[in-house]
Design goal:
- It is a single chain.
- This protein has 279 residues and is α/β, with parallel strands linked by helices.
- The chain folds into two domains: 145 residues, Endonuclease, Chain A (3-Layer(aba) Sandwich), CATH 3.40.960; 112 residues, Trna Endonuclease, Chain: A, domain 1 (3-Layer(aba) Sandwich), CATH 3.40.1350.
- The chain contains nine helices and ten strands.
- Strands 5-6-7-8-9-10 form a six-stranded mixed sheet. The chain has a four-stranded mixed sheet with strand order 1-2-3-4, sandwiched between helices.
- Strand 2 and strand 3 form a beta hairpin.
- The N and C termini lie far apart (51 Å).
């Protein structure tokens, strides 16, 4: 995306600040991606390209891969930061006197490629979030004022999942990444989350806030039991629930959970993961 200056004096960069931002680029896009890294607990792959996200054919018929601004594999999340030129005509960026391989000027091509991203990214099982300057603390020209605390609070709301089960999963996934686990494609496609660490494997079932805590707890245990298709002792199972459901999931005696290698994880309302005692 195009670099945009804030118009404000720039603070000296330290190694720690570069680590937070995940790039030495001082653009608004890099600033936003850095804050997303902080919220998600994972460093993004920037300008990531996928085999299935392609531009229009060039003169030789070759189709270049279109980059996305930021991709978090552990969260299966793509974020696009779209500055003002993505939503309005800006001659400086559009270059209306020059045609692209799409047969249109850059402004029209940009809209076509944005629409392609909007369609193809969700179609390939990834979550897409589009962030615009108006979503954060920006001036009339779309330049971010870089009010870090204000922008962080806004991004936490934007990146939040719509359901509480999604919230529980996102918090737990971030916690796993911090503990050295790597989320992988589940062996069973109905599994909420599967992760590996060395020769360990964790198969997880998550539940959100519910008015039927006991019934949902019983369903969750049944779902885990159906996924116990391997006798490999290095596989463990996790039941991840909000604080309000802990009493319900603890009704299965601890010694039974130990025999089945099921661990309980509590996700508090303020986003902290508390691991139940393993016997």
């Amino acid at each position: 995306m195009t670099v945009a200056s804030t118009g404000l004096p720039r603070c000296p960069r330290t190694p720690a600040s570069y680590a937070l931002m995940g790039t030495r680029d001082d653009s608004d896009e890099a600033y936003v991606v850095g804050l997303c890294n902080q919220v998600l607990g994972e460093t993004a792959l920037t300008q990531r390209k996928f085999d299935w996200l392609l531009g229009d054919p060039g003169a030789g018929g070759r189709r270049a891969k279109l980059p996305v601004d930021a991709y978090w594999p552990g969260h299966r999340l793509v974020v696009e930061y779209r500055e003002l030129q993505h939503d309005r005509s800006v001659p400086h960026f559009d270059k209306p006197d020059r045609l692209t391989v799409s047969g249109v000027h850059r402004g029209v091509q940009r809209a076509l490629y944005d629409a392609r991203r909007d369609t193809e990214i969700p179609a390939h099982g990834l979550r897409l979030i589009v962030i615009r300057p108006a979503d954060l603390d920006a001036d009339r020209r779309g330049r971010l004022r870089r009010s870090r605390e204000t922008d962080l609070a806004a991004l936490k709301r934007i990146l939040a999942r719509p359901s509480d089960e999604d919230r529980v999963l996102d918090v737990f996934r971030t916690w796993l990444l911090g503990e050295g686990w790597t989320p992988v494609d589940p062996t069973d496609r109905w599994t909420d989350l599967e992760a590996v660490r060395g020769d360990e494997r964790l198969i997880c079932e998550a539940k959100g806030r519910t008015s039927e805590k006991g019934i949902d707890a019983d369903i969750a245990y049944g779902q885990l039991l159906r996924r116990m298709t391997s006798r490999e002792v290095r596989i463990r199972y996790a039941l991840v629930v909000p604080s309000s459901s802990m009493k319900a999931v603890e009704r299965v005696p601890a010694h039974v959970r130990a025999l089945l290698r099921i661990d309980l994880y509590e996700v508090t309302d303020d986003g902290v993961v508390v691991r139940g005692q393993r016997l």
